[in-house]
Structure formats: structure tokens, C-alpha cells
Amino acid sequence: MKYFSKLTAALFIVPVLAFAMAAPVRAASEGQIEGGNIYRVKNVTKNVDFTDPANADACDVLQYKVRIHDPGPGALTDVRVQADLPSAAATSNVSTITVSAINADPSSTTDTATVNLSSSQSISYQNGTTQLLDANGNPLSTLSDGITQGGVGIGNVGVSINEKRFVQFQAQVSCPTPSPTTFNSTQNVTATATASANATCPPSQSGDSVTVSANGSATASANATSNVSQADADQKAHDAAMKAATPSAQANAQANANVKAQASVKCSSAVVTVVTSPPAAKALPNTGPGSVVGLFAGVSAIAGAGHYFVTRRARQ
């Protein structure tokens, strides 16, 4: 009976020893993903180094970076990195990074990186910017654009500090569309027209034929708006006022020429023919390409004359 009891006890001890010997072997094959503040942001536009939280304004370019380090005891296998980057507009954007491996214990590690925005804006990932870096921050490869949509794989990560890896990508703060600027202008334009009149007395009456000229003017005002520039608004208002003043200026010139022609002959029934010249108005300053070309031509002519004069003096 005593022999049977000892045999039974020995049978119970063997599985326990076997489990105790196998357990360390399994643990030695697993790796760990270092936690802590492993996820940070750099404001590329303002050239501010990686920090958490970071500050940004509209249109700024940001760079997110996560550190992947395995303190052991085993290497990490099939490491995957995924970033959650909220797309909603807000004054604070909190991105979450998740690093996982099939043999990690625990299987994944997360951290957050916050960007405080000066106005309510959204942040969006920039295609083609995800990179895998070595322990010294040197690029090893360009990764696919799936880091914010399911994650990207980076392979295995060893235990040595020299096997540390970084994954980084860029994003941009949204740029609000500025409200269109409207330029307003009011222009007063005085148009001047010239008319020539020929007065001829009929054969039955005495008197000579005369040709006279007379002027007429009229003033008009017009308003205009433009989304291009103030100069464009000024020009549009000027053209509209000129168009409105022209008929009156022409009519006044014709009437003045007719009266002047009738008064210049002695007969009472002279035949008067009136011809009106195109009206004129004070033009706006020309600052377009044409004036620049003209200025350049004038400077070139002066320079050419100077060169001719100097050359001629040198030859004498």
C-alpha cells in the first residue's frame, strides 16, 4: 500500500515538472512593445520639433512619428502600425496610434498625440508620406498609404536597441476658403465730342458757304463692382459712365455746330451738314503690360543712345 501511494505521488509530480520546464521556453519566444510617450507630432511649417501636444494653425503641415522598440526577450514578428486620425473639424485633434505584433505580450500598445489648433479645422493624411526609419532616424523604405485605413506592416523588430524602428507620416491642417473680396468703384466721367458743320446758302440767296467746328460735353456717373481688383472695378465704372455720357456730348456738339454754322452765313435758309467726331474722355492710368512694354522700350532707346554716344567718343 505504501508503495502504491509513492507511485501515485510521483505520477502527479511529473506533469507539474514538465509544465514548469515548458513555460519558460514559451515566454522566451515572445516580445514586448515598449509603451509610454511613443507617439509625437512635429509642426513642419513652423519648424517646431516633435512634441506632444503640438500647436498648429490653418494650412500647417504636420509630421507624426511613432517609436517601435522591443525590450525582449524575443523578437517581434509581423509588426503592424495603425493611426487613427480624426477628420472632423475641431480646435483639438487627438490621434491614436496602435502598434501590434502576432507574438507580442500584450499583443498591442497604444498612445495618443494631440494637436491644438488656433481655429476649428480638420487634419487630413497626405498621400505618399509614410516612411519606415531605422534606429537613427534614417529612411529605410516608403510604406503604403494605408496607415490611417487598417494600418501598414513593417516586418519584424529585433530586441537590440539598434533594431529600434520609427514610422512617420505627414498630414495637413485644412485651409479655409477665403471669402471673395469685392471691390467697389464710382466714376464721374465728362465726355467731349467735336462736330464739324458746313453751311451752304441756296443759289437764290446771297452769302458764302462756311465750315465751322464746335464742341459739346456731358458728364455722367456710374458704379461698378469687381472680384478681380480695384483697378478692374475702376475701369468698369469708367467705361459705363463714358457710355452714358457719350450720346449727350455728341448731341450737344451737333447742336452747337449747327447754331454756329447758321450764324456764320448771311442767308436765312442755309443748308447745314453736321459731322460728329468720336467723343473723348480722361482715361484711367494705364498700369497694364502695355505701359510696361512702352517703358521698357523707352529705357532701351535711351540706353542705346548712350551706348552709341560712348562708343563714338571712344573711337575719336
Give a description of the structure.
The chain is of the alpha+beta class and 316 residues long. It folds into 2 domains: 27-173, Immunoglobulin-like, CATH 2.60.40; 183-284, no CATH class. The chain is 28% helix and 38% strand. The protein has helices spanning 2-28, 230-264, 289-315, and strands at residues 39-43, 48-51, 54-56, 61-68, 76-84, 90-100, 108-121, 123-125, 131-133, 139-142, 152-157, 165-173, 183-200, 210-226, 271-276. Strands 1, 2, 4, 8, 9, 10 and 12 form a 7-stranded antiparallel beta sheet that branches. It has a 5-stranded mixed beta sheet with strand order 3-7-6-5-11, with no helix packed on it. A 3-stranded antiparallel beta sheet has the order 14-13-15. Strand 5 and strand 6 (90-100) form a beta hairpin. The chain is rod-shaped, with a radius of gyration of 45 Å.
Largest sheet: 7 strands, antiparallel
Based on secondary structure, the structural category is alpha+beta
Q: CA-to-CA gap between the ends?
A: 142 Å
The CATH architecture of the largest domain is: Sandwich
Strand count:
15
Number of domains: 2
Q: Looking at the structure, what is the overall shape? A: rod-shaped
Order of helices and strands: HEEEEEEEEEEEEEEHEH
Q: Low-confidence stretches at least 5 residues in length (pLDDT < 50)? A: 1-28, 286-316
Q: Please count the helical segments.
A: 3
Integer average pLDDT: 82
Beta fraction = 35-45%
- What's the CATH class of the largest domain, please? Mainly Beta
Rg is: 45 Å
